[in-house]
Amino acid sequence: MKPSEKSDGMVQFIDHMAKANFGRSRTSCVQNDLCVSCGEPAVSFRDELSRKEYTISGLCQTCQDGVFGVRVPDKKQYGIRPLNIEPYQK
Ligand SMILES: [Zn+2]
Predict the structure, then answer these.
(1) CA of 75: how far to CAs of 20, 60, 70, 79, 86, in Å?
(2) N or C: which end of the chain has fewer CB within 10 A?
């Protein structure tokens, strides 16, 4: 997968943090579809939002759930709607 675009300073910062915490760089992990945290293949995601989050943080679905909790897309507190579900009526 392609890592999300960020400024050079931001990329260096995140890669540095990832290396310090996990011994891996986010950029190289995302390019190789690996999780920066657990090192397992990161190929299966619940939805587009989680897939996008992976390109930002480098965390696989399991690790995202561990960090952020399991998202409930319709809950108002998150202000998130599933991207792949069309309304039944207009
Ligand atoms: Zn992981």
Answers:
(1) 34, 22, 12, 7, 17
(2) C
pLDDT digits (tens, 9 = 90+) for 25-57: 999 999 999 999 999 999 999 999 999 999 988
For residue 60, report the distance from its CA to the centre of ligand 1, in Å. Answer: 4
Q: How far is CA 27 from the centre of its chain?
A: 12
What domain range includes position 23? 1-90
The domain tally of the chain equals: 1
**Tens-digit pLDDT profile for residues 74-89:** 555 555 555 555 555 5
DSSP 41: B
